[in-house]
Structure formats: C-alpha cells, structure tokens
Amino acid sequence: MSGDLIRKFLASTPMSGVSSGYVEAVYEEYLKNPDAVDESWRNYFRGLGEAEQAEVAHRPIRSSFVKMAKERARRARRGEAMNPEAAEKQAAVLRLINYYRVRGHQAANLDPLGLTKGPHVPDLEPAFHGLGEQDMDTVFNTGSLAAEDRMKLRDILDLVRTVYTGSIGAEYMYITETSEKRWIQRRLEGQVYQPWLTEQEQRTVLMQLSAAEGIERYLHTKYVGQKRFSLEGGDSLIPALDELLRRSTTHDVEEVIIGMAHRGRLNVLVNTLGKSPADLFAEFEGKNIEDDPRASGDVKYHMGFSTDVDVDGRRCHLVLAFNPSHLEIVNPVVQGSVRARQVRRGDEAGKEVMPVLIHGDAAFAGQGVVMETLQLSQANGFSTGGTIHLIVNNQIGFTTPNPIETSGRRDSRTSLYCTDIAKMLEAPVFHVNADDPEAVVFITRLAADYRAEFKKDVIIDLVCYRRHGHNEADEPAVTQPQMYQKIRKWPTTRALFAERLAERDVVSADDAAQMLDDYREGLDRGENIARKTLGMVGNEHTVDWSVYQGGDHAEACKSAITLKKLRDLSERLLQLPEGFTVHDRVNRIMKDRSRMAAGAAPLDWGFAETMAYASLIDDGHNVRLTGQDCGRGTFFHRHARLHNQQETLSYTPLAHVGPGQFEVLDTLLSEEGVLGFEYGYATADPTTMVVWEAQFGDFANGAQVVMDQFIASGYSKWGRLCGLTMFLPHGYEGQGPEHSSARLERYLQLCAENNMQVCVPSTPAQMFHMIRRQQLRKLRSPLVVMTPKSLLRHPLSVSQLEDLTKGEFQHVIDEIDDLDPKKVKRVVVCSGKVFFDIYKARQEAGIDDVAIVRLEQLYPFPTEAYGAALKRYPNARDIVWCQEEPENQGAWYQIKHRLQIPLSKNHRMMYATRPGAASTATGYNKVHVIQQNILMQAALKEGSVLVGA
Description:
Helix Hairpins, KGD_C_sf, 13% strand, Rossmann fold, alpha/beta, EC 1.2.4.2, 2-oxoglutarate dehydrogenase E1 component, globular
C-alpha cells in the first residue's frame, strides 16, 4: 500500500474514537459488496492484504481500526501525527499477526520424530510484510491480539511464534462466529506466558504416562506374540483423557461415553476406566469364556466396559462402547447412546452427558461414516451438545506411506491434514505434538472448556507415532524403513518428560523410575494403580436392564385396545391448532381417518400405524421415528407431522397425546450414520420404541455394516439387548432394480439363535399389532419389517375396527375365502404383497382347489402355526412357495428347509419364483408385467419347480 494512499486516507478521515463506528460500518458494507463503497475506501481495504480472505475474519481488523483511532486521537492531542511510513508499518504488523493466526499451524513443531516437512510459509516472515530488523524495537499497536495494547515488534513476534508455531498448531480462523474466535484467541494468546501446569499436575501427568507405558511393557513381555494393538508412541492419550475427565466434571458432566477402535483400547480400559488388570489377564489367558455356549463373545480389544469412578471428589459414570473392527462405525452408535441418556435426564443442552470419540488418522480421513456423524452433530433430534474428538495420529494409518512422493500426492488422503473434514462444522482443530504432554493437557483443557461454552464439536489431533506395527506381529519397517530406523532409537514420551521434570527439579530420575516400578508391581498383584473404580453405583437415571433379560419370543402379548380408546385417540389426533391450514390432500386423509374411526370406512395402513403409536404413547411409552421422509411418509401415507400451508409452521399431533413422548425426525440423506445412531439410542433406552425407516428398503444397503456388526450380532458378541425396529419398504411394482427389493435374503441369512425378528405384515391390523407387540413385550430384540408400498392404498389390504380391538399379531394367516378344505389340491405359501396378486389371479381364473397361506413372520419361523395351517388341507399334495423375488434372492433359499419340516411323504415341495438374476428386478415395466403373469401361472397351475427334481 502506497504512502500517498495512506496520506489521502488520513487526510480525509480524522480517525478519532468517535468516528470509528463509521469506519466499521463502511468496512462491513465492503465485505458484503466491494462495489457498494467509494473507490478510495475500496482501494484502502484492498490494500490491507488480508491473508486467505475467505478464512480471515474482519473483527480483528475492525478492532485494529478502533485502537488506531484512539492512538491517532492521542497523538493529535499531543500535536503529533502518524506519518505515512509508520502507518504502513502498523498495517503490516497487523497483517503479520493475522497470518500467524491463519497459517501458523503449518509451521508448528508437530511431528515428534521430526520427519515431516511442512510447507514453506513465507507469509510468516516479517520481511514478507516489509518489516525488518530495524523495526524490531519499534512499539506497535497490537490490534486484537490478546496482549498489551502496544508492544515491541520482537515481543509480538515472540508471542505469536510461541502460540502458533510451537507444539500446538491451531486452526480456527475459518469459524464464522467472531465470539468463538475471540474466545480461542484469549485462551491461546492470553495464557502463553503463564505456567500451564502446576508441579503437582506435572507429577500427575508423569504418573499417567508411567501407567500408559507400564501396561504395554507388561503385556508385551508376559503375553508374547498376542495382539493388543499397542498405544506406544501415542502414550499422551492417557493423560489427555485423565485431564478431560477432570476438567469436564467441573462443568457438571456426570457421564462420559467413549467410542474408539482397537488402537490403545486395552490401555484405556485399564488406565482410564479402571478395569481390573486381573480380568484383562484372564482374557489373554482364555479364562473368560461365557457360561452360555451360544454366546460367541469377541476379542478383548473389541470389548466394552462401564463403571463409576471418582474424579476429584465427583462421581462420573464412564462407558467404553463395544466396537467391531470396522473402525469409525462406532461413532454414530456412541452419539445415539449419548442422546438417549440426555433425553432420559432432560439434559437438553447436553451438559451432563458427553461423547468422546477416539479416532485413527487414516480412518478419520477415509471413512464416510465420519462425515455422516459430523453432519448429524447439530441436526434436530441428533445433537449431543458437542463431541470431543481425539485423533491418535500415528502418521501412517495402517501401512500406507504418508510422505509426499515425487508426484506430489499422498497415498492416504488428499487433504493436508487428516482433520480437514471437520472444517465443514466450523469446529476448531488443535494439532499437538504428543511428545509434549504439557501441551497435550493444556489443549485438552481448552477443548473441554470450549465444548462447555459453545456446545460444539472440537478436534484434538494428537500427532504421534506407532512404536510397533499395526499389530505386534507385524513388521512395519517393510513399508516405513526410515521412520522405524528413527523410532527404534527414539526415547518414550515418559522418558522424555521425566528428563524434563528432572531438569526442573520437579521429579528426580529415581522418583520417575519408582513410579514405573510401583505400577508394574501393582500389575503383578492384579491391582489397578492408575484408576480406582467405584463399581456400578448407579443413580436415578440408571436403566435396570434385568427386567428385559428374560424376554422371550413366545411371550404372549395383549396388543388389542378398546374401541372407546381408539375413538378417543383418533378424535384427539384430528384436532389442530386454531388457524392451522393443512394441504387439501392431507385434509382429505384426515377426514377419511375420521370416517375410519367411526366405522364408516375400512382402515388403511396410515390409520393403523398411527393408532399403534398413539395407544403406546397414551400408555406412557415413548416413540422415536426417524428416516429421510418419515414425517410425511415416502409414499404419502403417514402424515405424522403436518405443515401449515399459510406460514412456515408444523404440528405433530402424536406429540400432544401424552404422557409418553413422540418424536418424528426427517433426517439428512444418510443411512449408515443415522441407523448407527438409532441402534445406539435403542441400546441405551429400552423404554422408547425406536424406529428407523428407509426411504426405500434397498437404501439400507448403505448401512449394512451396522446391520451385520451391531444389530444382528450385538447380543451374541457382547450381550447387548436392543429393541430397534427397521421399516424397509419392499415389493415388486415395476419400479426398477433399485426400488423393488429390500434384500430380504440378507436379513434372513443373518438370523440365528433367535437374534432378531423378520416380519412381512400384509394388513393394517397386522402392522398395528406388530408395532404394539414390539414395545409391550419384555423382549428387546431387533425387528426387521418388510413394509408395503402399493399395499398402502390397495382395496383388499384393509382392516376393520374389530381387528384392532380384538386379536393379536398372527404369525400365519390361513386362507380367507370359504374354500372346501377337502377339495384343495395345492397350497401356495407366500409373504407380503404377492399374496394379493395370487389372490386376484385365482379369482380371475375361477380356481377353487388352491388355498393361499401367508407367512407374516419369517423369523423366528412359526413352524407350529405353519404346520397347523397345512393340516387343514388333508388332500393337498403340492406345497408351493411363491415369491416375487428371483430364485437366488428373497426368502426361498433361507427358509426352504423350514418349509419342509411339517411335510409328510405324500407332499411335494415346489417353488415359484422369478428366474435367478444378478439384478433385483427388471427396469422395464412391460417386462415386469410379463414376469408377474408367468409367476402367477407357475404358482396356481403349472410351472412350479419341484424341489430335488
């Protein structure tokens, strides 16, 4: 910026404190639209040379204007004037400070091994801004720097270099909210010269590091060759977690739910949660086999743990979530569990229950579920008041070399940092050198305070290394030869810190060694030295899961309700707030529901489902329904949330039935993240009916890991009960491969040991009883439902009032026409929508010797009820299973052995399906119709395939 411009600006602007507001207003207008301000102002603001303008806030510059104005006024009173050269130097100093805030992290000392070479950042050099040695002793205005108003340039440089290029690299200038940035600046810049830790705190950190190193050494020598996924190299995680507990409990946190993969998990179990070393050793020695032979169990580094601990006189409940080897998949599960606990406590702000997620660097950057979980963090119905993210960044991930190759590209990611995805949340990221445990503890304290203040996520990138391979049998030098040459010679974090404390006369070398010996002796006795637990003390918010442990699939359930209750609920649901105008089509649906309640019209699916929820809520049960379009319903049938057509308002009638709570949430377009969240919610709250609905059934493919690793096997592996319900729209209606099949075969293939239920209801009444049964029984077992699409308005798929006021869910529905059982020669067995197609084809053909039996529950398979239905037809020889899906899909291959159990030697088992296919369905409607006609012929007359033929 030229001196003439400065002189012109100063000449035209008194720059007194009184007029600074005007300057600020002009600058605000310039930020919105540069062409809207006078050219002289536009040129001046451009001359400020903001670094990476998209990331740089204007508040610091505005603050600088105010300080400069005051200084100008003081000089004017003294008869002095700021010459153009001095003004230019002053602006350069402010730019330099700003560049350190924006780019200082790129020059920070983050790699403990010193192998990573960061980019050259010329912007951080005084010369880049026209400042030299001759300016070092000049006193400048510090602008918005959290320091004295005026300082020498060398002192300003010393401060910003210490803060932004030391052991901590802070990224936060992309945050929109100025108050958050100013808060961070005060904490980083304002505390730079203060002692971070007292001597006692330093000794505590050394003890934590001794514990972290001690357990790994002990396991390494006692259980040679066994996998444990050592934390060594990232030892500072343990003092970080210790500080996180200490600081968070001062903010009234009472529960901490932790999710992490296997790296360092055993260390955290013992040294953070206080698990008994004796119990851990028993797992290594195979002495922990379950009494129940059906329980598969899991490897020790996937196991969870929960306990109460004393943290500086405050009781805190700690949970480490069970987690499979699918890295980041535990993230949404933890968030769902936290949300359920917060709702149970009435903790709307997320103050009392806090999620902590511990990640690996490569997984954080590479796993899509990380983005989905981050995206949920501030979404309605999913926020948890902010998550503390700790990344154990060993700089190589699995075995992928991270250094930039000659091509200039990286193997493990595209972005500079593994944390860059978190910027979409405007969450602050603090990179920290893990070999500086004081910096680690300082930044952890800051992160806990930030979460408490702003209720947002915050990321700590713990830059460390991995002393061994991916597991202890791996040879890492094969892919990282230079790195491991240095690691083998590198002292441990504990050794480095002990040496530092000895130099300060805080702890002698002998005392430091004794800490390690004391810890090892405790392990020999099977005692935990690092953390004492209180056991499961519990409180008024603790769930008594023993009530649900005895749940049985055969348990009887009175799911019918009285006619009076049904009509009363219907009337209440149809009452809208005064002046609330619904869409004409919705209004017709509401009028139809009024007629249904009066008995003047048959019941449809939307009415029956709504009545199921309303009756549960009226009895005091809670219902949580989530999905991408579940408020309205993808197929325009539910309308649980109504929208005012005159203004942007919505109304949820079920939320006003009480005393139970109802929550319906239209979610972001996520399956894996949202389903994981709902699973976590259901495992933490058995008193709420948790339902997740896929927009189309096959969309659940994107959440298959959640189904495989948690929903289907969580009880067998970890003893985790879960009553989650999944609604998967399913049915062949000529809508193409992606919107026909919910992949029923995949769920049936996972069924064993009564681990879950798979149902295909074919009438509204069945839906009603099935929903109520799921919540009313003590059984907490996942329920997978193939829900209808075209059946929602099918003239035959209806029910009557008495179907809801009597009866219960039927596992098998026998023939509905008045056929002569003795004349029946063939029984067609089917599930779902295809029944109505077969029924219609039978009527059109005038066939009276074929009965149709519906299986409404495919697992656990209703062998007894199915066999009883077949006995009604003594002369039936052909038993035909008919399904819409191709032969290699659908239920056939998964249940054919069960279909044959009650058959006699006089029966012939046959099947009618579409031909085996790679795709789920045809994309051509004409072909669909042809296939459907052939299928009906095969089921009723000819073309069925004889099993074993």
